[in-house]
Amino acid sequence: MPLYETHVGMECHAELLTESKMFCGCRNEFGGEPNTRTCPVCLGLPGSLPVFNKKAIEHVVRTALALNCTISLHSVFHRKNYFYPDLPKGYQISQYGNTPIGVNGWLEIEKPDGTTKKIHITRVHLEEDTGKLIHSDGAGYSVVDYNRSSVPLMEIVTAFPPDIESAEEARLYAETLRSILIYLGVSDGKMEQGSLRAEPNPSVRPVGSDTFGTKTELKNLNSFRSVQRGIEYEAQRQIEVIESGGRVTQETRGWDDEKGISFSQRSKEVEQEYRYFPEPDLIPLEFDPEWLESLRAELPELPNAKKRRLMEQYGLPATDAAQLVLERETADYFEQAARGVKDTKAVANWMLGDLARLANASGLAIHAAPIPPAALAEMVGLIESGAMTGKIAKTVIEEMFATGKSAPQVVQEKGLTVSGADEVAGIVAKVVAANPDVVAKIKAGNDKSIGFLVGQVMKESKGRAKPDDVNRLLREEMDKL
Ligand SMILES: [Zn+2]
Does 448 or 39 have the greater pLDDT score? Predict the structure, then answer.
């Protein structure tokens, strides 16, 4: 059997975060009683006229800039004509041809081995979403909800030939894109609610072949995990079709996450004729270069840049920085907590270790934990100053999380202060007296045995003594003998 290689093109759709819909004043919000957020424009009633939502255009321009695209100064909208019950007008307003808002961009993914790869993007354009069909299971009818009709939708398409060469790279691409959209504040990125949809087009070909295989399009992938699983499954299925002498059919396939299989939905053998033509009710968009530059200047720091800065500014390892920048608020939390703390690496460790564990168990994001950044900084400060050991801090942070109290408060109330010098000296004397044979060994030159005595003292003091002090006090005590 020849070896096969996989190529994946990606089409992603993101519903834009705007107050109102694309061409009317209806509220743009997920959910709601069916058909309560509609008007003559988004229901496509005759005589109604669309009016642009400037915010939606701005969101697409900002995304295109963040994705390193060239912005078309002159951008046109088209009617994509087809009949389907979720499309009341009988056409979708979209952008077709060579004047989408953004063209020829790229984003960079980082692979688990630390290498990066540029994924080229061919277009970023604006269109409107359709309504939503809800099918009755087996009862033979469907109902339609037009609340989603005409919600502003952005489409981002990767370039051909595809740069993505595995299911994992496709997942990383989707994750990176989602993170950029969230940083920009243009999308909530909720794949499970369908406000961000990833539609991969995988194809396979024998290694060495110079023509691409027939691709299929995958739909209903509701998580990053299903993006990866769906492509892995589909590539394997295509290989099996070819190996058994068959031919891969160009079609749209749905993904059944529970069964872990894809299934044929709609054949695409014949290219559908959409009779595109320029939308006569909307004037073309003309962008002022100065406006574009002002939007570019105001772009926030994006995840990759933030990651590099955190590594440089705070001396964090790449893996920690990558985890911290996944959500903008988590990175902000870190930077607030790191203020005034010398050991910034420790702040990241506590956040990604104990705090993340406690937050996860409560279903919270790190930045939403009931420990404000300043309180975590104060806790790390107590360890730095020697007022508390790291071991005690593990108990303290749990109590802080559960009660919302500060580290000094918890230490005070629970009597977790580091043992006083006198107390530790007392314990040391006791341990030395109780272990004459170990002391004799040490005095005979077996220095390693001191570890046993240190352990005994730590146990007696319940972890509240500092190991350095214990070591010193033990030697002083033995010198007396
Ligand atoms: Zn409306």
Answer: 39
Instruction: Tell whether the model's pLDDT for residue 405 goes beyond 90.
Output: yes
Domain of residue 437, residue span: 421-480
Q: What is the pLDDT of residue 22?
A: 96
> How many Å lie between the centroid of ligand 1 and the Cα of residue 53?
12
* Residues 282, 305 within the same domain: no
Ligand 1 centroid, distance to 132 Cα (angstroms) = 15
Domain with 448 in it: what CATH number? Answer: 1.10.10.410
pLDDT of residue 462: 74
- For ligand 1, the distance from its centroid to the CA atom of residue 149, given in whole angstroms, is 8
Domain shared by 168 and 274, yes or no: yes
Ligand 1 centroid distance, CA of 20 (Å): 8
For residues 394 and 467, membership in a common domain is answered with no
Q: What is the mean pLDDT of the chain?
A: 92
Contacts 24+ apart (CB under 8 A), 344-348: 344/314, 344/315, 344/316, 345/314, 345/315, 345/316, 345/320, 346/380, 346/383, 346/384, 347/376, 347/377, 347/380, 348/314, 348/316, 348/320, 348/324
Q: What does the pLDDT average to over 88-98?
A: 93
Of 272, 292, 312, the position where a domain reaches its end is 292
Strand, helix or coil for residue 87? coil
pLDDT of residue 368 exceeding 80, the answer is yes
* Residues 349 and 266 occupy one common structural domain: no
Please state the domain count of the chain: 3
Neighbours of ion ligand 1 (CB under 5 A): 24, 26, 39, 41-42
Q: Which of 263, 292, 321 is the last residue of a domain?
A: 292
Element (H, E) at 133: strand 132-135
pLDDT score at 419:
62
